[in-house]
Amino acid sequence: MRVTASAPGKVILSGEHAVVYGFPALVAAVNKRCQFTFEGENNSAFNSEFISKYSSLKQLFKAWKNLPTTKEFSLDSQIPVGRGLGSSAACSVAVSAIIQQLSKQSINLEFINNMAYKLEVLQHGKPSGVDNTIATYGGFLWFRRESPELSIRQTIVTAKKIDSLYLVDSGKPAESTKDLVMGVAERRQANSQPSEQIFRQIEETTRGFLRWMQGQESNLVELIRINHRSLVDLGVVGEKAQQIVQTIEKAGGAAKITGAGGVVKGSGFLLAYHPDSEKLRAIVDNIDLKLDQLQLGGEGVKLHE
Ligand code: PMV
User: Fold this and answer.
1) Do 143 and 25 form a contact (C-beta atoms < 8 A)?
2) Cβ atoms of 253 and 283 closer than 8 Å
3) What's the rounded Cα separation, in Å, for the pair 293 and 13?
4) Ligand 1: which of 19, 131, 143, 144 to mutate, most ligand atoms within 8 Å of CB?
5) pLDDT tens digit sequence for 155-180
6) How far, in Å, is the centroid of ligand 1 from the Cα of 257?
7) CATH number given to 2-157+297-304
8) Which superfamily, per CATH, for 166-293?
């Protein structure tokens, strides 16, 4: 039996970190995917309990690869690891789709999403679930975690084609998503008032992004700039990324992190925008970085023939 499944990475347009505390996030699937192929005997152990035996994604992959009944278990991912593009969630979703297929259940996105969330918990401790949800369903989503057991998601139909957003790599973060989320939690616990204020500001910006996507608001530069300031105030954006953002802002554009960020070294990929894309390209060239055009709203998890 041979099964191949893939799922997309993501960018959070607005709402990262705040989403962990029940505030909304607007998120989009990107045109970079994680693909897994399994070939071998279908083992009755491949069911929803299978993943509970392992304490990390890596351990599960290794154990699966080494089963005597496995001929091939290979990964082919276009999503850079640990840089805010939802690589672990996309891989968790693709693997969950393979497990579901092997357990002979018909494709059920809810099931895949729930299983992938459990894998994300192994990886990140207390994830909001936004990354695995977008990797499962694709497109553009409004997502909010209401309680540990309940999250809501709504597909957003955009008023226009969104093709003017770019990625700029600010470098690999030294910290994991788990470390960064824990840092925010510790600061919030020590002094809850400022964090709540920042989260509320982020929510306002997220609602602004929604209006922008629906064609009701035009100032994307301002929205991204405000969002960036909130994330700096939250303490998740490092010096290097702040400098890149400052250079882009000085030239009339805007940029922000796309995921958990990073403080000590890089902050992962930045989502960058300038009303004149050629100008953005020139600025980024000038600081010896690469600009990568994004296609947003890609397809969610899928099985390949
Ligand atoms: O950096 P990533 O791709 O793992 O994204 C993390 C997003 C956070 O909001 C910071 C955490 C979460 O669980 O939602």
Assistant:
1) yes
2) yes
3) 15
4) 131
5) 999 988 888 999 999 999 999 999 99
6) 11
7) 3.30.230.10
8) GHMP kinase, C-terminal domain (3.30.70.890)
